[in-house]
Amino acid sequence: MKKLALAVAVTMASSFCAMAASDVAKSPPPAPYEQVSKLVKLPDFLPGMGQLFVDPATLPAGPFLAYDHDGKLVSSIYMLPIKELNPDKRFDNLAAPGGNVDHVDVYYNAGHPGVPEPHVHVVLWHVSATDEARVAK
Amino acid sequence: MTLTRREILGAGGGFAALALSSLAVWAGDIVDIAMKGRVDGSHVWFDPIGVLIKPGQTVRWTNLNPGNSHTTTAYSPKNFGRPLRMPKAARPWASDYLLPNETFSVAFTEQGVYDYFCIPHEHAGMVGRIIVGEPVTNGWTQLDGANGDLPEEALKAFPTVEEIMAKLIVPPA
């Protein structure tokens, strides 16, 4: 009986993940995600990232979902303030609805409206490194 | 003998180039300061970071960073309770966020030293300094506590008054 319950739970969890990934594959993602450029004064399409959506309740970490000019999901971005990377703070159980990850970039960002302090971008790319060009400008 | 601009640059190198750009600042009514940044947002700055202008001149800031928003915000208790780092008699300014290619201008009449910052990038050291006319004796720069709670990165970034007075224009480091 326990095995059956576990199997049902695993099946439900994996179908939830699959559904979540397909839900966010095209822009705009469903609520509670909102267009970042409508939340704060930022360009709607950010060179190097794309058009961003975020659930405001998850700020500053995100994930921010990034889309190319055709509305296809290219990456999920986490924004982690450097001052919060310390022994007393953790970022646990961050959502990851974007599906398969091709590769990951990590880099420093000086700040911007929405996350107005130096932070780290952790970028889960759902496309190949070559296809990053889709959001280059 | 008349030198072309290219000959002046060739003969005098960096000094000649600096002299030309410095003279340009003093010649016009409007002095331009660009807001710039790397594409990935890892570094942001004002260019120039320090400038000497004449009373009556206008400074125009333009956001030339295609992937970020910036502000020019005077250090004043009237702006988010920040420490006063400008002449008391002058009116503080706050541009709000400027999107790429947007501009904001301020006309300066009161003599003295003015410090300003970019709201989302103060902690990254995106600050600037304008001197109008000449530094005022016993102005805020001589006061204890003028540094207030400014981030270390911001304090390190300001060009000195002496450097601005000597060069007229101080480019970003």
Question: What is shown here, in short?
Answer:
The complex is a heterodimer of chains A (137) and B (173). By secondary structure, chain A is α+β, with helices and mostly antiparallel strands. Chain A is built from 2 helices and 7 strands, in the order H-E-H-E-E-E-E-E-E.
Provide structural commentary:
The complex is a heterodimer of chains A (137) and B (173). Chain A has one domain: 2-Layer Sandwich (Phosphorylase Kinase, domain 1), CATH 3.30.200.270. Chain A is an alpha+beta fold and 137 residues long. In chain A, a hairpin with a 3-residue loop joins strand 2 and strand 3. In chain A, strands 1, 2, 3, 4, 5, 6 and 7 form a seven-stranded antiparallel β-sheet that branches. Chain A has helices at residues 2-24, 36-39; strands at 34-35, 45-46, 50-54, 64-67, 73-81, 103-109, 119-125. Chain B is α+β, with helices and mostly antiparallel strands. Chain B has one domain (29-170): Cupredoxins -  blue copper proteins (Immunoglobulin-like, Sandwich), CATH 2.60.40. In chain B, the strands form two sheets. Chain B has a five-stranded mixed β-sheet. In chain B, strands 2-1-4-6 form a four-stranded mixed β-sheet, with no helix packed on it. In chain B, strand 1 (30-37) and strand 2 form a beta hairpin. The N and C termini of chain B lie far apart (36 Å). The interface between A and B is medium-sized, with 21 and 21 residues.
